[in-house]
Amino acid sequence: MDVVVIDVDERSFEGLSPEYSGFRIVGDATEAAVLRQAGVGTSSAVVAATPDDSVNLMIAQVAKLVLGADRVVARVSDPARRAVYHGLEIETVCPATLAVDAVAAYLTMMPADAVEEAP
Amino acid sequence: VSLRVLVAADERTSYFLSRRLIAAGHEVVVIHESEQVCRSLARRLGTTLIHGDATDPRVLEDAGAGSADAVLALTATDARNLAICRQARLRFGILRALAVANDPDNEEVFRVLGVDVAYSPTRVLAALVEQRAQFADITNLISVADGRIHLTEVKILPTARVVGRPLQHAGLPAGTVVAYLLRNDLPVVPHGRTEILAGDRLMLVTLPGQHGPALEALTAKRPEED
């Protein structure tokens, strides 16, 4: 699988594992020109996971609706901002919601005696 | 018609734009992230300020987006402008969502994504500079109807072939309209027999096919006389 990483800050690439052999592009992914350069239009998947919800949603919409990317996932930290993007074929992942689900699953799966034994 | 308008922009833009809209009888709500800016604008504008992030749907709701007629997203960040307009249209059903595209390439992106009108100050300035550099006597003022109609101002140089000719014999293609001309800074509504003088500024309305020939007719030089 070929991977292209885009980041505005060159230093971020230092965080890639030494085995990473894919492409690196220094640039602002909210510029359509940068996404085109990265080959988003012909990619099988695009993941937008910057710390900024608006940036991720813009990247996802441009990739999907303008450049015709196949599958698109955006990280959206604020659950309230996700609703309007349903139905636009953009998958959103919310860390807070995932954490809540995980905690809920852990609590409901825990055997009843384990809860009683807890100090 | 009085409109209810939400504005998200930097302090200066918010101030001058709101002042103008309020003077025109519209109701303005300004959204800004800085409490200090909100206090300052509230004092100077006497209008409603909402302290918060305009990309947050809860903040838009507080600002009365449910009953707004238009949203103006004019911040320095295209992603924020897009987020504001998408929320406005998709969640609150506001039909008029206008954004500035700081990156000229994003004009097309915004249109595809249903942000009604988007313009890029960068592109407008760049186009003006390029035109000024090429022809001091031609200024493309604006394109309307998706670029199908051009408004152009042409200054008639003393060396132009058309100087001294009536407008109807200036060699303009059929259908080109000279909406008005400025002569000694006074506007004149011309007719076919109006004589063209050096220094006149003509306001042309052209369709794409006529644009080049019309400009050529007005800027062609008089043949050298021996």
What's the short story on this structure?
Chain A has 119 residues and is α/β, with parallel strands linked by helices.
Structural summary, described in words:
- The complex is a heterodimer of chains A (119) and B (226).
- Chain A has 119 residues and is of the alpha/beta class.
- Helix content of chain A is 34%, strand content 17%.
- Chain A has helices at residues 32-37, 53-66, 95-109, 112-117; strands at residues 4-7, 23-26, 45-48, 71-75, 91-93.
- In chain A, the strands form two sheets. Chain A has a three-stranded parallel β-sheet. Chain A has a two-stranded parallel ribbon with strand order 1-2.
- Chain A starts with a strand and ends with a helix.
- Chain B is of the alpha/beta class and 226 residues long.
- In chain B, 34% of the residues lie in helices and 26% in strands.
- In chain B, the strands form two sheets. In chain B, strands 3-2-1-4-5-6 form a six-stranded parallel β-sheet, sandwiched between helices. Chain B has a five-stranded antiparallel β-sheet with strand order 7-8-11-9-10.
- In chain B, strand 1 (4-9), helix 1 and strand 2 form a beta-alpha-beta unit.
